[in-house]
Every structure is written in structure tokens, then in C-alpha cells.
Amino acid sequence: MPIELTEKEQIWEKALAEIEMSISKPNFLTWFQNTSIAQENNDVIVINVPNTFVKEWLSNKYHKLIIQVLRGLYPSIRNVEYIICAQSVNSQRAAAPRYKNFSIGAEEQPELENIHIDRVANLNPRYTFDNFIVGSFNELAHAAAQAVTKNLGSSYNPLFIYGGTGLGKTHLLQAIGNKIRQDNPNAKVQYLTSEKFANEYVAAMQNNAIPSFKEKYRQHELLIIDDVQFFSAKFKFQEEFFHIFNALYEKNKQIIFSSDRSPKTIPELEERLRSRFEGGMLANIQPPEYEARKAILQSKAAQREFIVPEEIIEYIAHNVQSNVRELEGALQSVFAHSKLLKKIPSLLEIKDVLQENIKSRKKTTIVHLIKTVAEFYNISEKEIFEQTRKKQIVFPRQIAMYLLREDFNTSYPYIGEKFGGKDHTTVIHAYEKIVNGLKTNEKIKEDVRQIRELLYTKEV
Q1: Does 163 show up as a binding residue in the annotation?
Q2: Nearest Cα to Cα of residue 306 among 344, 348, 352
Q3: Percent share of the chain, pLDDT over 90
Q4: What is the mean pLDDT of the chain?
């Protein structure tokens, strides 16, 4: 029997009340505050959610709880589905007064004694797939990582994940190791950086222990090497690692690498080792887009049992654009300031607190973006605005439009106006072309990465 609209609203209010009692307040406010029931079809409830990240989080983390609570209120409900609705009505629980009695107690801080590093595998249990935020910027790497855990040595071997500093490569590598150890505690898994590998090799040479060094690394079912760009120009280490790689690969053992650049751009790397790196699956991680940055901040705050006003989340997401690590650093400054004052600071206070963290937005202007793109493609700034269909001009123009939209959150009509009064549909086409290209075209990915590096890491 279909549920009447008013009854649906009442059921969701009751459901939210029960859910709020079952999870922490920050998690509730982060993932449930902007939800509502859209409709009911044949005892399937459809929930409005504000964006893709909330949809995925509710589907993957809270679906069982939602089903359980709703069935307790309305036993005939068979399933729950989620749809994105930007106009989803804010819950009354999201109103400003919820911050009034805020304080940070000792119980709200992470209990470090409960974090046990796996010293054998060198894995940190905090890094899991469950708390890894997935977006278009990293979905290929995430999908490949999950595929590897289901079929070690067969799916994507080796797996090579690359991208700029602070984008979550180490988190993903460690999540793979933790998942394998969770499924099989006896699995021989080893995570280490290439620098640690090199240091161990030097120590083995000094102690005449090369045979035991080789045996140690050849017995693993999963070997994870982080930051392999460190092998650049270190040819003795490259030679030894090449033989270890071959020994593992021939036994169908899984090998995973990460680097801040693709194998073909690592300088002074032996071609035979470069060939091994490129012989499996290459997955690039880009800097997160605006919505992903918001989701990352919300997730990190919820993990810390911490309530951060939406305006502060949006301010950080708009202004810290280069990588996840800097997002976490900005959020940590908010945590520290709030703990000191025993209250949620205002946006004005946060702007003052973060003035050293927030550099990209202050220094990077639209004019500077256009100048950087033009210089990168070796054309003049005047040419990028010309009414021409020459490929060498059109493509840089599309890149500039994409970055204006993605990194500056600039409206399509405004971008069109800046580029000679172009119709906003032209701008949308340019933006979508680059978005689609980033999913499949390595050159576009690398161009965007390098341009962002020039924009946000160089002094203006």
C-alpha cells in the first residue's frame, strides 16, 4: 500500500531521529542533514541526497542501518534507493543553533593507543577503503586497487599508481595491504618506501647479508613499494630490484608501485625496469575537484567526531586546491583553533587562522591562469582569446575554460563572456570535453597536472 506524502515525511523524520541516536553527531550532520524522502514505489523508498558523495556514502556505509530503521517503522518496505537532488530540503537539524553548545572533550580526540601499526607488514590500520573518498579524480586507481585485492597476482600486475604529492597514493596502497591482511592474516604482505628498500640494501651489503636480503623480499605474496621515483639514477638499487621484481612476477606474486610521476617521465631509469613498471596497469590520481574536496573535508571532520559549519568547509574547499594533504592541514588548523577556544570559530576567524595555509587563491588570479596556460602551450595570451578553430589554439582554450570552472568555480556565462562573448553552451562543451579526456587520455591528465603545479606551487 503506497505511503501518503505527509506520512512519508513523518516516517523520514522518525527514521532520522533513530539514526541520530545510532551514530555520532558529526557523522549524522555530515551525511544525513540534507536528505529527504522523494517517493515510494512498490514499497521501495527513494531518498533525495545532495550530491554523488553523500549517495555513495549512504549506499556503502549506512544502507543497512537505514533499511533496519525504516523497516522497524514500516515493515512492508523492501528496499531503499538514493537519487541526487540539488534542491533536497535541509533538515531542521542542520540549522545554525546546533553549534551553540559545542565543546571538545578528551573523549572526542583520537585514541592513539588504539592504533596498532602492523610492524611486520608496515601497515597503518587507519588507511582503509572504507575511509577513502572516491571521485572522478581517483576512481580508476581506486577500482584497480580493489580489483587487485580480489585476485592477487592476476588482476593488474604490476599496479602502478602515480600522481602529485599528497593526493592519497599512500592511503590507497596501504588500504590494499590492510584488506589483504584482513581477509588473510597469514598473508605475507610488505609495504615500504623505495628509500627504505635502498637503505636496507646498503645495510645488507655492509653486513655481508645480501642472500638473506634477497630471500626476505622474494617470499612475499604482496610487495608494495611507495615513491619509486627515488630509484632515479640509483642504478645499483635498480639492478637488484629488477631481479626481485622478476622473481616475484614469475611466481604470480602481486607487486604494487606508486610514484609522483608516470614511469616514462622518471629520469635516469633503466629501460628494462621502466618496461616492467609499464607492463601492468597504470592509474593516475589527479587533484580532487571542488565537490570531492568538500566531501574529503566532511569525511575527515566526521572521522574526528568534529562538527564544522558548511561555510567553513566551502571556504577551505574553494581555496585549498592542490592536494588532499593541504586540505587536511587546513582542517587541522580549524580543529586546533576550536579546541583552544572551546567553540566553533566564525568564518572570519578561520580566514585569519588559515591565512598562511590559503595561498593559491590569494596568489592565483584568472589573469595568472590564462597567462600560465598560454605559456605552457607556447602561445600568446592574445591568441587564446582569438576567434579561431586552429587545434593548437582551441585545445589550450578548452583547458583554460576547464580550469576556470573546476578550480575557480566560475559560472559558464562568465567564462563565455571572458572569452569573447561565447555562448555558455560552448563553454559547457569545452568543459565536458576535458572532463571526458581526463578519464582516458594520459597527455591531458599530465598537462592538467603540470599546469596546476605551475599555478599553485610557484610564486606569482
Answers
A1: no
A2: 344
A3: 27
A4: 82
105 within domain boundaries: no
| Domain match, 189 and 276 both | yes
Counted domains in the chain: 4
pLDDT digits (tens, 9 = 90+) for 110-138: 343 445 666 678 898 889 998 888 888 89
72 annotated binding-site participant? no
Contact 286, 138 (CB under 8 A): yes
Based on the domain organization, do 281 and 217 belong to the same domain? yes
- Domain co-membership, 51 together with 70: yes
Indicate the pTM of the whole model: 0.61
- Sorted by sequence, the CB contacts under 8 Å of residue 183 that are 6+ apart come out as 149
Q: Provide Rg for the chain, Cα atoms.
A: 25
Residue 329 annotated as binding? no
For the CA atoms of 72, 77, 79, 84, the dihedral, rounded to the nearest 10 degrees, stands at -90
Instruction: Please tell me whether 135 is known to bind a ligand.
Output: no
Which residue segment(s) compose the domain that 438 sits in? Answer: 364-457
Chosen domain end from 310, 329, 361:
361
Q: What is the average per-residue pLDDT within 348-356? A: 79
